[in-house]
């Protein structure tokens, strides 16, 4: 059903998706005269996007009031402009000067130049690109990252390049943990649940976190199906008729299906070792693996994902679609019979051996999972019982995260509004209004801080995985843009991309392998096991986190600077599938929209 999938090529003449070389990855030291105090998207800009850079300074006056954009090839000035003084200080007490060169629309490679007092010192940014394909490789790599996280399979050099590795964790002899035992599956029964993605920097597989990850990726496909149908990730399945993003999601769906107890429909919370493995390669990590306790949160997340999958995969695999829906309905039934089975790891360890000390993903609030599952099951079946759950749910906006998935359901209901009941117009209008108001408030708050980015609208945004907060804000802006067509929301989505790629308080591009200053030592066992290689590309690290739960040495406690590029820092420098999914949605969604703009622009020339 899909169009023929092409190969996305690097503008610099290499093929990143083939991963046969390190091309496209930048680990070079800054050149003489380049100042890290100039904060700019380190990859560049789409021709028709806003283009903003910030110079971070102390309170000392700056004589220079102008900036110059120069061609990186010739050094010739192509644009000049006045620097704007930031209205607010940064959270660390510094000032910013803003350079707005949005009028630069000609494709090319450039750098920004600013003169110091009396022109005695000239500083410049690292070069950046302006062009229609600037973010193509980032978009592809953000999805290819999931391939690198695959369990139970060898990653061959033809697909993984220098990151090829042996298979680890076959997961065909998984033990039922005593917390998960019943009459049909007593403790230590051997079951099989291969495939799936490693959750984060560790080697375990967690249903709750896979839930929001898979829902986000499938929703991205649903919003931009034509774009994804022609994208190749160079994965083993790239030659089949299924779009590559759906091939990759299905690799995790195959594992997720095995997490359901076939005797009653309940879903195990996680597949895990008792404790975390060391920083070793997957094939060397051989501790026993367990299915741990069924929970309501895992079962409802499973129901939502399977119901959405039944819709998304129906054009490609009718039988598989039917099986997904049956699994979703069985999970929903179990959850209604067991509405409050929480995962409380400390209490679990008081009752059962062995102790489980890996990621808990405990969630005491389950109404949002109930809404998400009901929304996806309603869209899959049209049954009014599910609509009653939806119509009784709260309407206020909340940004999605693994513990709050209500708006995954609302996003999809709005995207399929033609399937809503005829008498639901008032409900739909209220939901749309709440979404757009939330996006507008975040956009306006973002315009007032020193870096002019939405993420810095509130220090409370800087939690564990703060970069995923930013990426999910980007999704909110894309959804608001889809509903309203308001260019300002698209600008805010692009500003969020700018934040993640360097326009921020640390000066890092937070995506491995993209930019001149990127994480080199992520808390990622796949990377740490091979210190002779650069880190695997396309992964979004967690980002600034002032709570600093890992007790590593951080350069700052200021919220937006509380980040350290060290393998010890699981609180700021780990990777995780639920962080990469919104990055992939944002990066690919923006590329899809910008590609449409580029095609439209070329047709009018």
Characterise the protein shown here:
Residues about 1-30 have low confidence and may be disordered. By secondary structure, the chain is of the alpha+beta class. It is globular, with a radius of gyration of 24 Å. About 50% of the residues are buried. The protein is built from 16 helices and 15 strands. The chain folds into 2 domains: about 45-130, Immunoglobulins (Immunoglobulin-like, Sandwich), CATH 2.60.40.10; about 135-510 and about 575-590, Glycosyltransferase (Alpha/alpha barrel), CATH 1.50.10. Strands 2, 4, 5, 8, 9 and 10 form a 6-stranded mixed beta sheet that branches. The longest helix is centred in the last third of the chain and has 27 residues, at about 575-605.
Q: Mean of residue pLDDT?
A: 93
Which fold name is given in CATH as the topology of the largest domain?
Glycosyltransferase
Largest sheet: 6 strands, mixed
Fraction of residues in H or I helices: 25-40%
Kindly state the number of beta strands.
15
End-to-end Cα distance: 33 Å
User: What's the CATH architecture name of the largest domain?
Assistant: Alpha/alpha barrel
Q: Please count the helical segments.
A: 16
What is the radius of gyration?
A: 24 Å
Beta-strand level of the residues, as a percent range? 5-15%
Shape: globular
């Amino acid at each position: 059903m899909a169009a023929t999938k092409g190969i996305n090529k690097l503008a610099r003449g290499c093929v990143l998706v083939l991963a046969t070389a390190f091309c496209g990855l930048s680990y070079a030291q800054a050149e003489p005269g380049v100042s890290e105090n100039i904060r700019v998207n380190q990859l560049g800009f789409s021709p028709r996007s806003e283009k903003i850079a910030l110079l971070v300074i102390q309170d000392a006056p700056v004589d220079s009031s102008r900036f110059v954009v120069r061609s990186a090839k010739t050094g010739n000035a192509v644009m000049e402009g006045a620097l704007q003084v930031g209205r607010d200080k940064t959270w660390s007490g510094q000032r910013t000067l803003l350079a707005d060169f949005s009028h630069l629309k000609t494709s090319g490679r450039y750098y920004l130049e600013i003169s110091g007092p009396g022109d005695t010192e000239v500083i410049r940014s690292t070069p950046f690109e302006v062009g229609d394909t600037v973010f193509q490789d980032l978009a592809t790599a953000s999805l290819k990252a999931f391939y690198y996280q695959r369990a139970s399979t060898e990653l061959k050099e033809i697909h993984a390049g220098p990151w090829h590795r042996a298979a680890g964790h076959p997961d065909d002899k998984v033990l039922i943990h005593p917390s998960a035992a019943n009459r049909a599956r007593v403790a230590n029964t051997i079951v099989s649940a291969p495939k799936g993605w490693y959750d984060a920097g560790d080697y375990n597989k967690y249903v709750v976190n896979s839930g929001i990850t898979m829902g986000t990726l499938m929703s991205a496909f649903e919003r931009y199906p034509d774009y994804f149908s022609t994208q190749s990730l160079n994965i083993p399945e790239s030659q089949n008729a299924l779009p590559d993003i759906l091939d990759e999601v299905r690799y995790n769906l195959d594992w997720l299906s095995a997490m359901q107890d076939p005797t009653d429909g309940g879903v195990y919370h996680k597949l895990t070792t008792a404790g975390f493995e060391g920083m070793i390669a997957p094939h060397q990590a051989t501790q026993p693996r367990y299915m741990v306790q069924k929970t309501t949160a895992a079962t409802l997340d499973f129901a939502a994902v399977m119901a959405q999958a039944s819709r998304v995969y129906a054009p490609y695999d009718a039988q598989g679609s039917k099986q997904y829906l049956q699994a979703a309905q069985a999970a929903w039934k179990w959850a209604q019979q067991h509405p409050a089975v929480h995962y409380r790891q400390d209490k679990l360890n008081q009752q059962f051996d062995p102790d489980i000390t890996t990621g808990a993903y405990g969630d005491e609030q389950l109404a949002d999972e109930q809404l998400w599952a009901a929304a996806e099951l309603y869209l899959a079946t049209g049954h009014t019982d599910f609509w009653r759950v939806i119509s009784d749910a709260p309407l206020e906006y909340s940004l999605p995260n693994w513990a709050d998935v209500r708006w995954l359901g609302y996003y999809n209901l709005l995207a399929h509004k033609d399937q809503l009941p005829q008498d639901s117009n008032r409900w739909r209008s209220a939901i749309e209004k709440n979404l757009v108001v939330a996006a507008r408030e975040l956009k306006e708050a973002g315009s007032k801080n020193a870096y002019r980015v939405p993420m810095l609208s509130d220090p409370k945004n800087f939690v564990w995985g703060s970069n995923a907060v930013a990426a999910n804000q980007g999704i909110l802006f894309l959804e608001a843009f889809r509903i309203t067509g308001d260019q300002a929301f698209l600008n805010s989505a692009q500003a969020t991309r700018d934040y993640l790629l360097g326009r921020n308080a640390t000066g890092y591009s937070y995506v491995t392998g993209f930019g001149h200053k990127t994480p080199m030592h992520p808390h990622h066992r796949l990377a740490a096991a091979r210190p002779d290689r650069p880190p695997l590309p396309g992964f979004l690290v967690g980002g600034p986190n002032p709570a600093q739960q890992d007790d590593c040495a951080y350069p700052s406690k200021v919220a937006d600077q509380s980040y350290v590029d060290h393998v010890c820092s699981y609180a700021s420098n780990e990777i995780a599938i639920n962080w990469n999914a919104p990055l992939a949605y944002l990066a690919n969604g923006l590329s899809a929209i910008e590609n449409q703009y580029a095609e439209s622009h070329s047709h009018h020339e």
